[in-house]
Specification:
The protein is mainly alpha-helical. It contains 23 helices and six strands. It has a two-stranded antiparallel sheet with strand order 1-4. Strands 2-3 form a two-stranded antiparallel ribbon. 34% of the residues are buried.
Length: 466
């Protein structure tokens, strides 16, 4: 059996850590006081830096030249966290880039085989090449959805897949359902864990309060786990799996996620089917379903196509403005998020973005523990400063100790924000500008058609006051 030579790999890793140690030591020696806040760069930039470190042969040579008795400088836990975070972020981007590029090759092969400009033929062939366990049909509605999600206007929204999809895929694998269902989150919320619909549905998976509680999500004045991406995804996976067990068809399970099993059962009955042993699909009951649901399943198929083939449409997804490598720490006593951001190098905005379930920025860990999500490279820094963080209780929590103050804070809402439609404006462009979704703007303004806005129209672009 051939023996694997590990020396080059080990030398490369040692060289990387050795160089990182030197850079870190120099930075610490030069700083006058508390370190400046980290500026999160894109994973592409991180990879370039990693490659330059990996190729630094002088660091490797210096290590090899040292006598055995002179051990290399020990790396701190913070440095190890940083290297591991950099590796995780880089591998995440590489994984999806390889996935996207594989479908660029597929589309090129299809184009060279078909030798036609007929988009319908091309779309059909590309959908068939996806080989999804969720049947992907093609018709005029699916084509509209494809053209919608392959528009450059959706690139920023779809870019959040780099952060949310690894977690969604893991939860779906654990639940035993197809990971291809991940793009439902794009249709539901635009990958926004704070999305709110006109029907009081909230979060990445748009649970209404009753359904959220039915699936074990905590919802109260301080915590709304519908906004916790991982817990909400876990609940969505259970819901979808239950619906698949009931119908034996993923398109009907998806439809029921939108309109509920009661409406799906009515559609089956009105189509002459028997709910108990129905063997049809969404398309067999299409005209008996609510209008929104008729659009919903094609939108899922369009988003699934776009995620795989967007590069074939000359669209690139930017990486989101958040760290791709995160980890969690369990908190066992009440804490305000500002206690953390005022102590370690993380901005309040980023900390809130990573922990959207805490509606007043308070972790109410009185009777049970709650998770705090942090960039992976800050885990050790948090642990080392945990005593200092907790010592700020009296400063940051004093106004929340009294129940009346909590209620006052809960009912305080920022003033509504409005946008006046100008020439060339689109709902997707307006949503991107104000950090919300098209679905939210339509709900806040009672719009039925996303293309029906007119110049001079005044649109609400923030959540209504509660």
């Amino acid at each position: 059996m051939k023996t694997l030579n590990l020396k080059p790999i080990l030398l490369m890793l040692v060289g990387t850590l050795f160089t990182a140690t030197t850079l870190y030591a120099d930075a610490v020696a030069q700083r006058p006081g508390r370190r400046a806040r980290k500026q999160y760069t894109s994973p592409e930039a991180i990879k370039a830096e990693q490659d330059s470190l990996a190729c630094d042969t002088s660091a490797v040579a210096a290590f090899e030249a040292k006598p055995i008795a002179e051990a290399p400088r020990r790396n701190s836990l913070q440095q190890i966290d940083s290297v591991l975070a950099m590796w995780r972020a880089t591998t995440t981007v590489e994984y999806y880039e390889n996935y996207f590029n594989s479908f660029v090759a597929v589309s090129e092969r299809i184009d060279s085989t078909l030798k036609t400009d007929n988009l319908d033929s091309i779309y059909v062939a590309r959908l068939e090449a996806l080989m999804s366990p969720v049947p992907l049909e093609y018709n005029s509605e699916v084509r509209k959805a494809i053209e919608r999600f392959t528009s450059p206007a959706y690139a920023t929204i779809m870019g959040y897949a780099y952060y949310y999809f690894p977690m969604i895929e893991e939860e779906f694998i654990n639940a035993g359902i197809p990971i291809e269902l991940r793009t439902l989150a794009v249709v539901e919320s635009g990958l926004n864990p704070l999305a709110v619909s006109g029907k009081d549905a909230v979060g990445l998976w748009q649970f209404i309060p009753s359904t959220g509680r039915d699936y074990g999500l905590e919802i109260n004045s301080l915590v709304d786990e519908r906004c916790n991406p991982q817990l909400a995804t876990r609940a969505a996976a259970r819901y979808l799996k239950n619906m698949y067990v009931q119908y034996g068809d993923w398109t009907l399970a998806i439809a029921s996620y939108n309109c509920g099993p009661g409406n799906v059962n009515k559609a089956i009955a009105r189509s002459g089917g028997n709910v108990k042993d129905y063997d049809g699909s969404f398309w067999d009951v299409y005209y008996m379903l609510p209008r929104e649901t008729r659009n919903y399943v094609p939108l899922y198929m369009g988003a699934t196509y776009a995620f795989a083939y967007h590069k074939a449409h000359d669209v690139d997804y930017p990486t989101p403005p958040m760290p791709l490598a995160t980890d969690t720490i369990m908190i066992h006593r009440p804490m305000h998020l500002d206690q953390v951001s005022s102590t370690i190098d993380i901005s309040p905005e980023l900390l809130k973005m990573l922990n959207p379930q805490y509606t007043l920025s308070i972790i109410p860990a009185t009777t049970k523990s709650y998770p705090l999500t942090l960039p992976a490279e800050l885990i050790t820094e948090y642990v080392l400063n945990e005593q200092t963080i907790h010592s700020k209780d009296s400063t940051y929590l004093k106004e929340y100790v009294i129940h009346a103050n909590i209620e006052k804070k809960r009912h305080q809402a920022p003033p509504a924000v409005y946008h006046t439609v100008k020439r060339g404006d689109t709902l997707s462009g307006i949503a991107k500008k104000y950090g919300c979704t098209v679905k939210q703007i339509m709900a806040w303004n009672n719009l039925k058609n996303p293309d029906s806005i007119r110049i001079g129209q005044r649109l609400r672009v923030s959540a209504p006051s509660r």
